[in-house]
Design goal:
With 156 residues, the chain is mainly alpha-helical. The chain has one domain. The protein is 73% helix and 0% strand. The chain is elongated and about 60 Å long. The chain starts with a helix and ends with a helix.
Length: 156
């Protein structure tokens, strides 16, 4: 493949990733707003069951240090098993994130690869797109968690 064609595909992929951002932001905000986990309570700010911003950033750091969605899910399940901060069971934040990684973000990655006319090394390029979507999703989640902890009560 010519360098020009590769560049065109990369730019097209980035465009489609940007086009998907609203859907990704909405998905993680819904998970943080509606799922069960250790939510911040201003009346009990030192509650050890509260999901801290640093713990969410740790998950994001795992995602930025690997090219494997399985590693991200493994880390999240490990955290879920250690303590209840991420929630437990099918209605937990942890399981909502895992489901979004497995379904929403994976399907979106395939869709983007198809729209960008990726023909060579489709699986590798789709995985690359998937990981970029995961990183963005978790980054937006980290921001929303800060809002939920520090801004939500101020704006009400």
């Amino acid at each position: 493949m010519k360098l020009e064609d590769e560049l065109k595909i990369k730019l097209t992929i980035q465009k489609y990733i940007r086009d998907a951002e609203d859907e990704i932001v909405i998905a993680i905000e819904d998970a943080l707003d509606k799922k069960k986990y250790g939510k911040y309570d201003p009346k009990n700010p030192k509650d050890p069951k509260t999901l801290e911003e640093s713990q969410f950033r740790n998950l994001l750091n795992v995602a930025t240090s690997t090219n494997s969605s399985e590693v991200v899910k493994n880390f999240l399940r490990y955290q879920e098993g250690r303590e209840e901060k991420w929630g437990r069971g099918t209605e937990s934040l942890a399981e909502a994130i895992i489901t979004d990684i497995q379904k929403l973000l994976k399907d979106k990655a395939r869709e983007i690869a198809t729209k960008a006319n990726v023909v060579e090394e489709v699986a590798a390029k789709t995985n690359e797109i998937h990981m970029e979507l995961i990183r963005r999703y978790l980054g937006y989640g980290s921001r929303h968690l800060v809002y939920k902890r520090k801004g939500e009560n101020v704006t009400k």
